[in-house]
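## Example record

The block below lists the input lines for one assembly entry, exactly as stored, with component labels intact.
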Amino acid sequence: MSLSYVSLLDLAVVVVMVTAALTLWRQSLAAAVKALAVQGVGLAAVAVILGAHRHDLVLVGVGGLVLVIKAVAAPWLIGRVVAHDHAAREASPLINVPASLVGAGVLTLLAFAATRDVVALVGTPAGRLIPFGVAIVLIGFFSMVVRRRAVSQIVGLLTIDNGIALTAFLGTSGVPLVVELGVTLDVLLAVVVLQVLVAQLQRHFNVHDLDQLRDLHD
Amino acid sequence: MTPSIGGGVASALQLLWVLLAGPLALGLMRKVRSRLEGREGASVLQPLRDLRKLSTKQRTRPTDSTWVFAAAPVVLVASAVVAAAFSPLVTLSALLATRVDFVAILFVLLLGSVSLLLGALDTGTAFAGMGASRAAMVGAMVEPALLVAILAMSLGVGTSNLSRLVGVGVTTSTLAGPARILALVSFFIAILAETGRLPVDNPATHLELTMIHEAMVLEYAGPDLALVTLGESARLVLLLGLFANLALPWGIALGTGALALVGGLLAVSIKVGLVAVAVSVFEVTTAKIRLFRIPELLAGAFLLGVLSVISAVALR
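Predicted structure tokens for the full assembly:
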């Protein structure tokens, strides 16, 4: 029982990690949004597995909430922007794809090096997965820095949030439901606002590259 | 360990199997592709017939080519055959099974690729040189991905002995861990690149701007071309067989008894057939990526390998 719990948890966390890498790997924005949806499913699976193991119904409920918001609602909202956008590619990131993938590998190693004490402190099967959560946060930051398209930046933001949520699930015995509800809904709100903003940007100025927005327009 | 007669029989069997299964797998993949595209397609046996036809033709070589050009096809076939004889394809107890290292097998195979590349350069023609330089570029990026994937698989088992790596899946019936899955995905992408299958190279094209492998072998004709085709297809089934046995080791013979060998032969043929059909279906649904985007694909494979190594160390 406990062996299969650990291997299922490992698998779910690695799914989240690989989808974070996928958002850097693929240039197509539609693929990045799909990867984000799978990431949401993986995150929800982590919460449900942990909740089932600890007999914590609230955590299972949080898992359901994560599934609805991060695997369905947020990707659907961003997907609408991508569907309107014909040239939906991250054409010229600041760092090219092979270099940013190597960068992601280095960030993952950095996360493992930085969290060794935390892992030793927590000392549970879930605790040793914490470095992956930190690595996903770093990869999210990295993708926000090197990507120039507005949609890519939203994807980066959501990756950061997923990484923080993953770290919280793994490190603590579950965030209180109210806090989790607040944070998740905040993120959903941020995505809605950004989605409206990006759609308006495209309609009025016909730009997708945030670096071009240096001057004030009427 | 002293070489046993059973191990020798098993190695000979594996050697013959790759030489026969290679062209058949090639025919099967072409057949599946034709059917999915709505064509009837040539028979599965067609590559074998082609080989027979080519081997009876007159031997012609470019006037300025040297022994490097002549030796390349022979080295290619020999490297594939040597690697196949000692790999755990049909049985875990082939000759030298306790000593054969995964890295060694792959480097024997790479010897074949390098000799083909040198043979292409030797002709001095524009296309062959272009193909060789592209093949060198892809090969240089495949290698780190392959090595990292092997490292990740070896870390989980504690050895890079190929038979032990395959055997660990037979003896323990647990679900494959995330480290092994990531390493296998990385290994598979590297195999597709190394054998010149679709997202990296189109094996069916003779469009000079896009071809990699076909450009290299453009100058080969007759028996030499037959050897190149045979060697390439043997490499393909050998790598697919290694992948299939690493991913799904069930059915591989543990010893070298006659019944076990027949069972192992059937198992590996079915598994390689299934993987070949899967690759073929994947090839129909995908397009060749631009040459300058191949580094992205292989960097992704490399990152998966790195993640696999990290998880193998962290999740022990």
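The CA atoms of residues 83 and 150 of chain A lie 14 Å apart. Chain A touches chain B at residues 3-4, 7, 10-11, 13-14, 17-18, 21, 25, 27, 97-98, 101-102, 104-105, 108-109, 112, 128-129, 131 (CB under 8 Å).
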